[in-house]
Amino acid sequence: MDARSSLLHARRFKAAEWVFWCLAFAAPALLPSHALMLNEMAIVALFAVSLDLILGYSGIVSLGHAAFLGLGAYSAALFAKFILPDPLLGLCVGVGASLVLGYLCSFSIMRGSDLTRLMVTLGTALILLELANKFGDITGGSDGLQGVVMAPLFGRFEFDLMGQVAAWYSIGVLFVLFVLMRRLVHSPLGASLMAVRDNALRARAIGIHVNGRLSLIYTLAAGVAGAAGALLAQTTGFASLDVFAMDRSADVMLMLVMGGVGWLYGGVVGAVLFKLMYDVIANITPQYWTFWIGLFLVVLMRVGRERLVRPWTWFGASRKEQA
To answer: Which domains does the chain have, with CATH numbers?
Structure first.
């Protein structure tokens, strides 16, 4: 099988994937009392997938990815409150603002080591946090931007208190953007990004425009994170300084560790697993839930993701390894 055929084969949806997405869209109807949690899972999953685009497929480490989430949230919230409360237009505004910021920031991540990139991305998020706090007359400052009321989706579906419309809206946006990202990573462009990730010098030697690839994927990932932020503000009717916090960037990194880096479904699986663990453990031990998540991560790293789902290999090598 040549490279083109391999990419086309990888791009096709498998039967299990269709089952997964059908269950995702059916979940708000099957679990109406958990619609708000499903909405949050979809938003966090989209945020995690956006980080995986730059970390898993391009090798760009970031500790300030929340900058794009926050900008998307505030842009959509301000647009809805002062201009037009249409959800889809607000979503486009949030994505557009984050795309612009991502493009501007992409020039700062082309040089330097991973440590430099960590500091630059973290600094960007902190600057935006302080700007949002400084211009409190517009953003609400430390009190947050409140009173964001959205118009009915497509002019027909009003956002209900149970969160079912919000859940379907967020899952729908997640699905559309996921399909687009899936096509991207299984394209010649995606293959060149992985070549840059594995060895930038060799990629440059064979004619790949490394800086152009990094700038493009960083900008696109910022736009996807902005979409997650816009969904967060629209479905909650609120935008606060918390969206820029370092905790957001750290949590989404943990989700990728849980689900797997360099695999788009890893962001989705990691987000669902993290939110479920948080909800269950926090209800049992509200004060020590971070301890149990930390313990799970230690076990995950020590045992390995593959062995964790195959307990019979914990205490010795598998038959394949022995062979």
So the answer is: 3-246 (1.10.3470)
What's the Rg (C-alpha) of the chain? 20
The DSSP-derived string for 209-252 is -HHHHHHHHHHHHHHHHHHHHHHHHHHHT-B-GGGGSHHHHHHH
Go through the chain and tell me how many residues it has: 323
Contact assessment for residue 78 and residue 45, using Cβ atoms and an 8 Å cutoff? no
Q: Mind listing the pLDDT tens digit for each residue in 242-278?
A: 898 888 888 888 888 888 888 888 889 889 988 888 8
Please state, in angstroms and rounded to a whole number, the distance separating the CA atoms of residues 275 and 45: 10
How far apart (Å, rounded) are the C-alpha atoms in residues 161 and 97? 29
> Which long-range CB contacts under 8 A does 193-198 form with residues at least 24 apart?
193/57, 193/58, 193/217, 194/57, 196/58, 196/59, 197/57, 197/58, 197/59, 198/59
**If we measure between CA atoms, which residue out of 57, 52, 4, 54 comes closest to residue 192?**
57
Provide CB contacts within 8 A for 64, sequence distance 6+.
120, 121, 122, 123, 124, 125, 126, 246, 249
6's tokens:
């391999």
Q: Based on the number of CB atoms within 10 Å of its own CB, is 270 exposed (0-12), middle (13-18) or buried (19 or more)?
A: buried
Q: What are the tens digits of pLDDT across the range 158-200?
A: 888 788 999 999 999 999 999 999 999 888 888 888 888 888 8
Please state the separation of Cα 219 from the chain's center in Å.
Answer: 14
